[in-house]
Amino acid sequence: MSTVTESQSLEAETETETEWESESESEPPKEPCLRNWLDLPRDVTASILLRLGAIEIIESAQKVCTQWRNISRDPSLWRSIDMRNAGDLHDMPYNLEIMCRHAIDRSCGGLIDINVEYFGTDDVLAYITQRTTHLRRLRLVQCWGISDEGLSEAASKFPLLEELEIYSGNTGKDAIEAVGRCSPLLKTFKYNQVAIRDPYFKDDEEALAIAQNMRGLHHLQLLGNKLTNHGLQAILDRCPYLESLDLRRCYFVNLDKDLGKRCAEQIKNLRHPSDSTHDYEFTVSSDSGFSDDDYLSSDFGNEDYGLDYEFYGSDGFDGNDGIYDNDYDYDLWFNWGDL
């Protein structure tokens, strides 16, 4: 009797479970909880926008909604301007130099850090000096339109500069000397280029300019430089505060003997010429005996590699109040369409 009762009980439980499963399968799945980004506090939204580059903010983020557009005008958002891009200037539907000037205007004189890649010119540097005297960090990547004279003139307006990074370009000894004289607070100097192996191109001019004018340096990066042991010796003699020294791909430096021993004793963080460059974002080695620097001249940088100002139009500049009278004109200029 008890056996029958237990069997009936098991059958009843099985039927109940089957009914429950069929009911739950027939129920529509619950929709995922979606976050409304417009409900975020203003400071949180500003923090998100800060993670974007200047191009992404101006081209995309400020078009999301009125709230984001208003936040994107906050000068504090533009104390640091990152104009990072892929370098395909002629394929872009906008003019990076005009966009950069617009971003600088939004800083309202509070700019302290700017990264300019591929499109930099003497005029861009001059515009920066007109809009801020507080610049502390300047990064120039393959800015062939910037000359020794242009950087030297700009350096005279950057007395608070603490870090300067240059990767490939037309600047050399004269600009290094000017920066060293005009920026006494400079602690970090990164002067990198595509390396060459041909001994014909050995040159200590830049190394000697650093040694004679940048004695307060703490960090020096010279990837692919043409200096020899003579130039390195001068840097070690005249830069007593140097803590880190990066000599990767400096093919004319030999650290096998006494000079290498001195570097090891004097420098806390030393990168040798043969050390890997996998963690550096740009090319620093050339398969041929020549580098890009030897092929490209200042004329090339100002004409062929530069922007076609007639195509984009230069009449949109406003020398008094920035580039455009208002943001509406700016949007039309880039043909971005409706928000």
From TrEMBL:
<feature type="compositionally biased region" description="Acidic residues">
    <location>
        <begin position="12"/>
        <end position="26"/>
    </location>
</feature>
<feature type="compositionally biased region" description="Low complexity">
    <location>
        <begin position="1"/>
        <end position="11"/>
    </location>
</feature>
<dbReference type="Pfam" id="PF13516">
    <property type="entry name" value="LRR_6"/>
</dbReference>
<feature type="domain" description="F-box">
    <location>
        <begin position="34"/>
        <end position="81"/>
    </location>
</feature>
<protein>
    <submittedName>
        <fullName>F-box protein SKIP19-like</fullName>
    </submittedName>
</protein>
<dbReference type="InterPro" id="IPR001810">
    <property type="entry name" value="F-box_dom"/>
</dbReference>
<dbReference type="InterPro" id="IPR001611">
    <property type="entry name" value="Leu-rich_rpt"/>
</dbReference>
<dbReference type="Pfam" id="PF12937">
    <property type="entry name" value="F-box-like"/>
</dbReference>
<feature type="region of interest" description="Disordered">
    <location>
        <begin position="1"/>
        <end position="32"/>
    </location>
</feature>
<dbReference type="InterPro" id="IPR032675">
    <property type="entry name" value="LRR_dom_sf"/>
</dbReference>
